[in-house]
Amino acid sequence: MIDLDLAAPLDRHPATVLPDWIDWNGHMNVGYYVVAFDKATDTLCQQFGCGYEYTRDEIGMTFVLEAHVTYDREVKEGDPLRITTQILDHDAKRLHFIHMMYHAKEGYLAATNELMLMNIDYQTRRSAPWPGFAMERIEQLAAAHAALPRPSQAGRLIGIKKK
Amino acid sequence: MLQSLPYELPELITRAPLDTHRSTVIPEWVDWNGHMNVAFYVAAFDQASGAFMRNMGLGRRYVDGKLGMTFVLETHVTYDREVREGAPLRFTTQLLARDAKKVHLFHEMYHAEQDYLAATNETIVMNINYETRRSGPWPVPVAERLDAIWATHQALPKPAKAGRVMGLSKRS
Fold first, then answer.
1. Is B10 part of a structural domain of the chain?
2. Are A16 and A79 in contact (CB under 8 A)?
3. Do A24 and B64 lie within an 8 Å CB cutoff?
4. How many domains does chain A have?
5. Residue range(s) defining the domain that contains residue A123
6. Closest residue of B to A28, CA-based?
7. For B55-93, what is each residue's pLDDT tens digit?
8. A116 touches chain B (CB under 8 A)
9. Other CB atoms within 10 A of residue A4 CB
10. Is the entire prediction scored with pTM above 0.90?
């Protein structure tokens, strides 16, 4: 496993807006924000040994149960991105966290993605407790992130405000 | 505000929920877990939002004609059951609320043959002024269509998965 990075929030995921991610509005399409965020989820899962190799080696999988995205500002083809990740909560099987996507040069917040991730048994494809090696690291990461303020984008309810 | 749209609008479907959209899980949507990746559920739901907007008169011609655009502000997905490559999908779309610039939609994605619920998507879509790329009121014929379909959609019960706030239940 890679060295554990206890900087809070986790800040080790750069990305670039690819041409394929652009839609007819001339900006990154709503689905591809989630493509970019999902790659940042893998960067997080690498921290506790549940990234791509975890599934490739048929040890286990991680499934997303629920996702909430706020689209805060447009990004265009070629824009450099920086995605940070904050753990909000966890239990024996699940991990609740939020990604923040920034324009890496201009610094503005482009989008956020709150996620509920569950550990999955490779054979049964059903939920299972985090393996011991993962839980140990998740607890260290959660402790390191516990002092961070909770982002206002976490725990949102969707709706149109009545005027 | 646009008083009219310079093209013929499709015949309005007021049936509630809207149930016209179909799709298929294409190979590019499948990830290393052997199922549709989380992001492409959002892409598939975005196409269902597109079907809803076309029914309102806001299809590709709206953007290509430089009349306006629609942007998603916020979206919430529940992933209820896996779908695999080639799976046929059908969608239903319920209008939960609307105002002068926005619609609040609720999509359900079903496996079209086995009929199970695969996912839901609650989303807010806003009308955008083409020149300023900022919010603007719906064109008049669109607002009229929204009123017409609201008359049928408001009678539907609120979906159980709408209005969710994410969190770990402390009971489990």
1. no
2. yes
3. yes
4. 1
5. 10-145
6. B71
7. 999 999 999 999 999 999 999 999 999 999 999 999 999
8. yes
9. 12
10. yes
